[in-house]
Protein: Protein YIPF3
Organism: Phoenicopterus ruber ruber
Amino acid sequence: GKRQASRAFSLYANIDILRPYFDVEPVQVRARLLESMIPVKMINFPQKIAGELYGPLMLVFTLVAILLHGMKTSDTIIREGTLMGTAIGTCFGYWLGVSSFIYFLAYLCNAQITMVQMLSLLGYGLFGHCITLFVTYNIHFHSLFYIFWLGVGGLSTLRMVAVLVSRTVGHTQRLILCGTLAALHMLFLLYLHFAYHKVVEGILDTLEGPNMPPFQRVARDIPVVSNAVLNTTAKAVALTL
């Protein structure tokens, strides 16, 4: 009983440590979602970063659902694993992996940011990806995707870049840190769009491409007529003439 009580107490203590990172009101999450699309040009003072993980975690799960929808509509075949596992691994792998890499790079560049703040910043930065993929997965036009990619995805990327610029000292350090984050974030959106749309993209290229294959005529089934019938028909025509 003492061991079970100590285990329960330790588990409750661990959960209590994580509670401040998920204690947030829906109004605050909505405001931070809107702020993630508005880049603020303020370099002299470090911009504030929300130190909570509820909003970013929900955005990652939303991205998983959108990516799973895109994989199903494009008839993507996964040889090893399942569609759900691939979608979860891709989204969470990017969120955790890129956040860790950028945090390590920020440590080398003397940027004032913690790991929780980096997870929150990159997590809210996925809001633009969710909007872009949700629209372009249902409306398949190349031009529309590039507009959303530069517009919506670019705004969310500029927001993160502006925050890192305000927390980094030195032009070289800012260029390395912000350039790496912007390249990874924008290329990840390109990957999510084109990696699971092979069937749809092939259809669009066939319909929109300049070199359309020629129309092929299919021979219809003609009943086989015996030689006797043909000879009889020929003799009747000859006698008539």
